[in-house]
């Protein structure tokens, strides 16, 4: 599993629409060939069809699609938006941290989510993710080994 490695994290990305944010987070996975292009389109389509169901906490979105939409390896990427974007969630908007999840099975999906919840379950960690100046600061939060 590739979890928030340096090549999977991008800070202060400029987007104006939720779909752009999803695509940018997905691109990090695509660049490493962890997913296929169709996975990004599936994440966007899922958002357009089902709304912001993956905006799970204030400022945090976890877009994902199904394994059969083109996952090569379980992975999580993160983009931090320069300016928060409204995804249309009643209580958790606007979003500033977008974690794209890719898993090739339900079991992997749960493992990936558990890792993320350990990180995001601590509000101090969320604050640090929002204020980190570099990948090194984020790497310290996640224990340095991805």
Automatic annotation (TrEMBL):
Keyword list, A-Z: Cytoplasm, Kinase, Phosphotransferase system, Transferase, Transport
Query: What CDD domains does the record point to?
Result: PTS_IIA_fru
Query: In this protein, which residues make up the domain named PTS EIIA type-2?
Result: 2-145
- Compartment(s): Cytoplasm
Where primarily located? cytoplasm
Determine if Kinase is one of this entry's keywords: yes
Name the InterPro entries for this protein.
Ascorbate-PTS_EIIA_comp (IPR051351), PTrfase/Anion_transptr (IPR016152), PTS_EIIA_type-2_dom (IPR002178)
What's the protein called, per UniProt? Answer: PTS system mannitol-specific IIA component/PTS system ascorbate-specific IIA component
- Tell me what organism the protein belongs to: Evansella vedderi
């Amino acid at each position: 599993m590739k979890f928030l490695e340096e090549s999977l994290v991008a800070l202060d990305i400029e987007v104006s629409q939720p779909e752009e944010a999803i695509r940018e987070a997905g691109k990090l996975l695509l660049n490493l060939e962890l997913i296929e292009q169709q996975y990004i389109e599936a994440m966007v389509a899922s958002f357009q069809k089902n709304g912001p169901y993956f905006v799970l906490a204030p400022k945090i979105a976890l877009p994902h699609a199904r394994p059969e939409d083109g996952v090569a390896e379980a992975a999580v990427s993160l983009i931090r938006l320069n300016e928060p974007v409204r995804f249309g969630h009643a209580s958790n908007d606007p979003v500033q941290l977008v974690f794209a999840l890719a898993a090739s099975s339900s079991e992997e999906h749960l493992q990936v989510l558990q890792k993320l919840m350990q990180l995001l379950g601590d509000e101090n960690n969320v604050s640090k993710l929002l204020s980190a100046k570099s990948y090194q600061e984020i790497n310290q939060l996640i224990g340095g080994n991805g």
